[in-house]
Every structure is written in structure tokens, then in C-alpha cells.
């Protein structure tokens, strides 16, 4: 960029002076020196600086005005570490055998979650939607259940992790003299491979969402904006002011020495 300005300038300037004014445009300083350069190059640089400077300004203002959203835990390992540090609570369904399966799991993170649930007696009645909703609305909480159940009951109101604690097998009971077992297996495999099951679930959820009038906005835990969250912005502002004052001081000293 400096080479282009120096080559297309109608007047010859030193590289240091030209660099100072080119970067100064980015900081909304005077463009007097660049007027002597090619108008197309100067105009494109001014336009680019406009979008860059105001883009950074918009990001900074949005950071200061929009509340921070707490990122949900996405994996079992993250949930285990959060529960160990006391930052998160996790509940299981009352009367289910999920807790026993977790305590006997091969994964240490799953066993850790199970021990915390058993120790603190964190259980929720899954027959009551309001109890689950109240528990999750407290923030820093999670429940253990199947994805399909959460989607059917709450659509997209809460974040549903793609990670799995464990998987369980589902079988269809038939008579021992049933003569079409292989054919039934083939049909089930085809249904699973073609995605018919997933499509049926999605269609049902879509119809249920329309009937319920759900807007699709997830219930995201809002994090309170604290002073440490603003350290970066204040450091950026203070550093800029310090540099500006330093340069201004050197300009005054230089002006007095050259008189």
C-alpha cells in the first residue's frame, strides 16, 4: 500500500511520513497529505478505513451493550469437570435405573456425574413438565434424559447436547414361532438407513411447534456483565489514550526544538 501511494503520488514524500499519514487515516486523522496522491487509490483507502474503523467500533459497542450469554456445556467431560468444581448441578429422573448404569460405567466422567447425583440427591420428576422447566430455568443446571424426550416435551427451549452418557438397545418382542424374523430385521434396517425415523420425529416436532405457538427462542442463561469482562475494552481504551498523549507530547517537544 505504501509503495502504491509513493509511486502514484504527485509529490515525493519520505516513506516514514507517508506511512504515518496512511495509518493516521485509519485513526480518523487528517488526509491532507494523501490528497496529492491518486484519487482512486486515496478514495478506496478512505472507504476501506471507514468500514474497518466503524466495524471495530460496532463490535466494541455491541460487547458493552449486549449481555453476555453463558455457553452451554457440550460434552460429558465438561459437565463432569463443572460438577467437580461446584459450578453445575445435574439431575436424573426419579425412579429410573439411569443412576445405577452411570455408577457402573467404564467412563470416569460418567461415574463422577453419577456420584454427585447420588450424594446430593438431585432427582427430578419427569412426569411434571413444570418441575423440569423450573429446575432448568435456575441456570447452571442439567438433566439426564433422552434427546427425543426433551425435543418432544420442550422443542428447542433448552440446549440438548449431542454427546451421550451411554446407549441402550431397543428390541421388538415377537412370538418364538414368528416366521418372518429376517424380513422384519431387513425392514427395520431399511427404515433406520433411509432416515424415516428421524424424518417422522422432525415432522411431528414441527407440527407440535406450530400448534403450541412456540417462537423457537431457546432459554439461554444470561451471564451478568462483570468488571473482568470489561478489562479488555478498558485496556484498549487506556492504551490508545496513552499512545495519543505520548505522540502529542513528542510533537510539542519537537515543535519547540525546531523553532
Descriptive report:
With 259 residues, this protein is mainly α. Helices cover 57% and strands 5% of the residues. The protein has 11 helices and 5 strands, in the order H-H-H-E-H-E-H-H-E-H-E-H-H-H-E-H. Strands 3-2-4 form a 3-stranded parallel beta sheet. Strands 1-5 form a two-stranded antiparallel ribbon. The longest helix is centred in the first third of the chain and has 27 residues, at 39-65. It is elongated and about 110 Å long. The two termini are 34 Å apart. The relative contact order is 0.08. The model has no long low-confidence stretch (mean pLDDT 75).
- Given the helix and strand composition, which structural class is it? mainly alpha
Radius of gyration: 31 Å
Percent of residues in β-strands: 5-15%
The amount of helix comes to 55-70%
- Spatial strand arrangement across the major sheet: 3-2-4
Distance between the termini: 34 Å
Order of helices and strands: HHHEHEHHEHEHHHEH
Number of helices, where a helix is a run of at least 4 consecutive DSSP H or I residues: 11
Silhouette: elongated
Assembly state here? single chain
| Average of the residue pLDDT scores | 75
Which residues form runs of ≥5 with pLDDT under 50? none
Query: Biggest sheet, in brief?
Result: 3 strands, parallel
| Total count of strands | 5
Keywords: Cell membrane, Glycoprotein, Membrane, Receptor, Transmembrane, Transmembrane helix
InterPro entries: Insect_Ionotropic_Sensory_Rcpt (IPR052192)
Protein name: Ionotropic receptor
Subcellular location: Cell membrane
